[in-house]
Amino acid sequence: MSKNFPDASPETLAAQALGVTEPLTGAVTPPVYIASTFEREADLEYKNGFIYGRPDNQTVRQAEGVLTALEGGAASLLVASGMSAATGVFLALKPGDTALVPEVMYWGIRKWLNAWGAEWGVAIVYYPNDDMAALQALTQKHKPALIWAETPSNPMWSITDLKEAARIAHSVGAKLAVDSTVATPVLSRPLEHGADIVMHSATKYLNGHSDVIAGALVTREADDFWQRIVGIRKDIGTIMGPFEAWLLLRGMRTLHVRVRAASANAMAIARHFEKHPKVAQVLYPGLPGHAGHAVAARQMTGGFGGMLSIRVTGGKEGAVKAAAGLKLFKRATSLGGVESLVEHRRSIEGPESPVPEDLLRFSIGIESESDLIADLEQALAAV
Ligand SMILES: *Cc1c(COP(=O)(O)O)cnc(C)c1O
């Protein structure tokens, strides 16, 4: 389709998975290419470029093509999980390098970085997510090779100004990589703001149906740093399986409608509970009172995402009781599916977590807004 219809918008590209039909039968949905190995020609060459299933796979390539188009990048890599996507970027650093990472970020990456950075001689320095003056000062001091950002960041939903972060990174020759799992390419395209690499836990919104573990990286330029990451996927063997890639390709066809519906529901819930007597605070970048609202309004388009957190009155006890009383929301980890989930993050992340004890994290799905509000109302009434 990109050839037949060069001006197609992202919705169109996603809905038709770039418009590819299968040449043998004309099928409008592609088959799953599961072969692990490919025949050589008599002259020992591989005429189609495929040699073995660890470096590459056609179903994976098709899904990568869609994501590259949605993010406006030069190339993508799909891997077995969001964690293997994130760690692939850090593993491409060298001993003696410094990485600046945000104080509030996906806890699994923070936990891995603290252990790995120390053991492998990569210095990990934290910066406050939304303080670009502090990021500037730390960058001047530490001369990092990489700045990592996550926006909106899990689970406080603070916002990082990507244009500023990119300018600061590039002023010392560093790369800016952005965990854009929560924003999705529907609401934010970090490469347009100057980022070098975008990372997704494709387990979340990109797939959207809570049935795949997957990760993705998209690059603005296929430069040397990117080639190191490509080598890491190939040599460590973290490529996504073909069945997962096929499910992801299917999931991305509905990405825009799912993300917009979840964002609209989240906005309605945030507004409804903002001044609720059992609620100490609603954390959602779509609310004008949120510290990151102005930057979010500038760098996100079409909504503020489906993730929000609520600090419940009555401390940890109040929060756990409210979660226990929910009937429609599922008490489960993860996010970005069509069904709404709730989680008491502090219990999951442990005592070193910066997350307040009274906080419940909500992944808002695409159910009826009034059903979700009614469920939260009845659960909060019991607190
Ligand atoms: C879930 C998540 C990850 C990790 O992804 P997995 O697919 O679980 O490995 C990283 N970053 C964010 C923001 C996430 O929500």
TrEMBL record:
Family to which the UniProt record says this protein belongs: Belongs to the trans-sulfuration enzymes family.
Name the UniProt record assigns to this protein: Cystathionine gamma-synthase
rRNA processing keyword on record: no
Annotated CDD domains: CGS_like (cd00614)
Species classification: Bacteria, Pseudomonadati, Pseudomonadota, Alphaproteobacteria, Rhodospirillales
GO CC annotation, single: cytoplasm
Keywords for the protein's UniProt record, in alphabetical order: Pyridoxal phosphate
Cofactor field: pyridoxal 5'-phosphate
Keyword Hydrolase: no
GO molecular function: cystathionine gamma-lyase activity; pyridoxal phosphate binding
N6-(pyridoxal phosphate)lysine PTM positions: 204
GO biological process terms held by the UniProt record: cysteine biosynthetic process via cystathionine; transsulfuration
